[in-house]
Write a structure and sequence with these properties.
3 domains, 20 helices, 4-stranded parallel β-sheet
Length: 443
Amino acid sequence: MGGELFAGKSGGIYDLMKNGPAEELNKTLNAQQAIFLHGLAEAEALKRKGIKADCAAGLSLGEITALAFAGVLKDDGFVRVRAEAMQACCEKNRGAMLAVIKLSPEKVISLCKQFKEVWPVNFNSPEQTVCSCSADIVDAFSDAVASAGGRALKVKANGAFHSPHMNEASKTVAEYLTSIKLGKPEIPVFSNVTARPFDNSALISKQISSPVLWQQIIENMIKDGVDSFIECGPGTVLSGLVKKIAGENVQIQKAEELLWAKDQVAATAQKIAGDFGGVDVLVNNAGITRDNLAIRMSETEFDEVIAVNLKGVFNCCKHFMRAIMKSSGGGRIINISSISGISGTAGQANYAASKAGVIAMTKVLARELGGKGVTVNAIAPGFIDTDMTVGLDESIKEHVLKTAVIKRFGKVGDIASAVSFLASPEAGYITGQTLVIDGGLTL
């Protein structure tokens, strides 16, 4: 499953993933297919690498990826049919989603009952319950949450998913399922609806308009003996949720950490240079966190962060370097560091060390490559609104908003614009520098 999407036979999703535009890719119809492909590709790559899964689970769309990986869903048209049905519901019923934090699930359920069209739909962790609602109730419900001592954060979603707003989509998918052949699961897949392994195909369509019992799924998986989780697909949201549910009792990794080895970097650099006739700009942006107080931090937590955040940057610079030095317009290397590598952040001895190392490495490479016309610079973002900051403790978020000169979290575009400038000809005389973009947080 997924072959037609990769081949571009089903709406050109693969091409859209590569080339954009972003506004088209972000539409529910296209985004769901792209996220599905990303997750399934990583899961299959792990399997080929010899990493065997004993069971699987996914939150919302991720469940479809898990079912495809387990051999239950084999029809290439299913993801598109599901996405089209949900998109139609979004256009018919204007809805929104809000992540409620600082309140217990029981309290959130009670608040939802006070409104006609507000539903608790994702029970993600002890600290987070996501609610769906009609678009015109967002402000009123947010105020009610605040009055109860909580906080409601808008979720980037085009509709009120997993709620009665999606009833028609659920029916459409149920009808489509009767026309395709489903396979038997090769491994257990935990259902969003029941929090237990699938035993009924009707759960696949029912999930679209039903709450997701994510916390209960993780708790049941652990009871069944699961002690290691690997997240496939974009972002690190699920890793953060699992950590909040299970604490330090399980091991959590991202698929890309296991797949992106140094030998693959060398091969990828060679292929890109060959396919495109060279490399002009390298942006090292991958990063992970394994936060803990130093006295409690395990050697594994320290080593994993250093391996990805620091050694990963070194490997990419090393293997792309020769191609970049041949750039006719003067090559550019831009490394994404962090203000944590400048001022330090409690609980991030590993992360701060890795990002400080990136800054130091940037200065060294600037000296080594300057004679070849290559500039090397770093960007140190502050707190930016990404998947990595969604799971931050509320007290940290409040401190940032109180301390920063500009009273908001940064946006991805703030960083992207700086990267674009440093990659441009206008930045040809800037090298070895670290540009801090933190809204004045470290002044």
